[in-house]
Each structure stands twice: as structure tokens, then as C-alpha cells.
Design a protein that fits this description.
By secondary structure, the chain is α/β, with parallel strands linked by helices. It has one domain: TIM Barrel. It contains ten helices and ten strands. InterPro entries: AKR, AKR5G, Aldo/ket_reductase_CS, NAD(P)_OxRdtase_dom_sf, NADP_OxRdtase_dom.
């Protein structure tokens, strides 16, 4: 299991992806975001996750350039993810959206490019474009986000290349048991967005009790739970002390009983949209 913030898992195409990264959802373009990325890289983070719809790819790119310059790291030591938005889905549209994202980021390639949401009728053409980007060597790995089991099954009926990752809402109130089992059987790596349920779990009494027993914060307990379930996690923060705290989850382990207690909190409750019923 993950021993450090730089531990990686090998995806089904052989590419190594960090278990832990920085999410930047709802962080606006600007100096705060640039500093957050610099801080994260300084703290040992090697994975940054953004998306076209976040509207912050330019600042993410700026942060990456500054972080590389001051750390002495090279581009290939970082793992950068972005996503194609619903309005840009389709074959030609996706190819164009990828180039737009690269231009905003100021990068030559992405490590991972994801379909952001499973828009009915658009998935297969979009995936064909993703496969072309991959086969042409433009991107290191391709995957999906917010796909349920039936979306994955449908995609894989026509796909030449299996998704490497499915990034979904995952936290103690939404444990996604069926999806996790399916992903494991298919060798598709699950990745958690909103692992802390946008802060809504930080005063949960069961989690507080477990946190106290380990001398850790509730956030650290949840992030450790993700990792012990074999789920990549990308908590969002712009504050240096929080970026550091979130990453301090490699010096302890949750017991089987801790894991069971947290799993039992499941309510199938979402903070984000339902992948079977969204209108964007």
C-alpha cells in the first residue's frame, strides 16, 4: 500500500500515476492558485487535477512552470490531468478541446485526459477522439469521470482502448461499492473527487472518534480510508497548512475495524450531480 506521497499505482496501460494529488475545483485563475500549486509541489505532491470547465488552466500552467523552476523537477516528474467538458464532446470537438487545454496550460502533453460527464449520445464519438489522441502519442493515458457501471459497460462495447481511470464522487457517505467492485474486476483505477464531501464530514462523530484514536484530523482519516480502499485521492485546498496536513497520511494505518465503521456510514448520498440525471 501507499508508503509516501510520491507512491504510484500502475494503470492498465503501464503508466504510473500518483496515489495522491491536488484538486483545483472552484479555485479561480490568479495568484492564490499559482501559490497553491507551488506549495503542493514543495510539499511533495506530484499530481495536479484540473478541467476545462474550472476555467483555471492558465493559472495551473503558471503554477506548474514556477514549481518546476524552483524545485529543479522536470515535467515528466509531474502528473497532470484535465477533462473535456460536456459542451465540447464529439469527435472533432474533443480533438480541438484537447489542444485548447494544452495551450492554456502551456504544456506539450497531458498525463491523463478524462471525459468529464457521461453525456448520452456523445460518449462513443468523444472516446474515439480520446483514443486517437492516445494512439498519436499526444496524451499518456485516457479515462472517464462520473461514469456508472452501465456507462462503462456501454463504452467498452465499442472502445478499442479501455479507460485507465474513472474519477467519481467518493467519500464515507457514498462508498460506491458496486462501482468499486466493477472497476477492480476490469482493472480500471478509481479516483475520488470531493473526498472530504466539501467539508461536510469534518464534524461527523464517528469520524471524530476514529481521528482522536489515531491523533489525526478527520480529513486525514478520510484520505487514509480512500488510500486503503485502493482509491486515488485529490483533495482540494489553496492553504499551505491544509495542503501539508492533507498529505500527512502516510505514517499511520486504519484498522480493519476502523475501515468497517467508516464503510458503514454509507447513505448513497451525493453532494454533486447524479451521473444518471444531470442537465449540463
Amino acid at each position: 500500500m501507499t508508503q509516501s506521497i510520491q507512491s504510484r499505482t500502475t494503470l492498465n496501460n503501464g503508466i504510473a500515476m500518483p496515489w495522491f494529488g491536488l484538486g483545483v475545483f472552484k479555485v479561480e485563475e490568479g495568484e492564490e492558485l499559482v501559490q497553491a500549486i507551488r506549495s503542493a509541489v514543495k510539499r511533495g505532491y506530484r499530481s495536479i487535477d484540473t478541467a476545462a470547465i474550472y476555467g483555471n488552466e492558465a493559472s495551473v500552467g503558471q503554477g506548474i512552470r514556477e514549481a518546476l523552476a524552483e524545485s529543479g523537477l522536470t515535467r515528466d516528474q509531474l502528473f497532470i490531468t484535465s477533462k473535456v467538458w460536456t459542451a465540447d464532446m464529439g469527435y472533432e470537438e474533443t480533438l480541438a478541446a484537447y489542444e485548447t487545454s494544452l495551450a492554456k496550460l502551456g504544456l506539450d502533453y497531458l498525463d491523463l485526459y478524462l471525459i468529464h460527464w457521461p453525456v448520452a449520445g456523445k460518449i462513443n464519438d468523444t472516446w474515439r477522439a480520446m483514443e486517437k489522441l492516445y494512439q498519436d502519442g499526444r496524451v499518456k493515458a485516457i479515462g472517464v469521470s462520473n461514469f456508472q457501471v452501465h456507462h462503462l459497460e456501454s463504452l467498452m462495447e465499442t472502445a478499442e482502448i479501455k479507460p485507465v481511470v474513472n474519477q467519481v464522487e467518493f467519500h464515507p457517505l457514498l462508498v460506491q461499492e458496486e462501482l468499486r467492485a466493477f472497476a477492480k474486476a476490469q482493472d480500471i483505477q478509481l479516483e475520488a473527487w470531493s473526498p472530504l464531501m466539501q467539508g461536510m464530514l469534518l464534524d461527523h462523530p464517528v469520524l471524530q472518534t476514529i481521528a482522536e484514536s489515531h491523533g489525526k484530523s478527520v480529513a486525514q482519516i478520510i484520505l487514509r480510508w480512500d488510500l486503503q480502499h485502493g482509491v486515488i485521492t485529490i483533495p482540494k485546498s489553496t492553504k499551505d497548512h491544509r495542503i501539508a496536513e492533507n498529505a500527512d497520511v502516510f505514517d499511520f494505518a486504519l484498522s480493519d475495524e476502523d475501515m468497517r465503521r467508516i464503510d458503514a456510514l454509507n447513505e448513497n448520498r451525493r453532494v454533486g450531480p447524479d451521473p444518471d440525471n444531470f442537465d449540463f
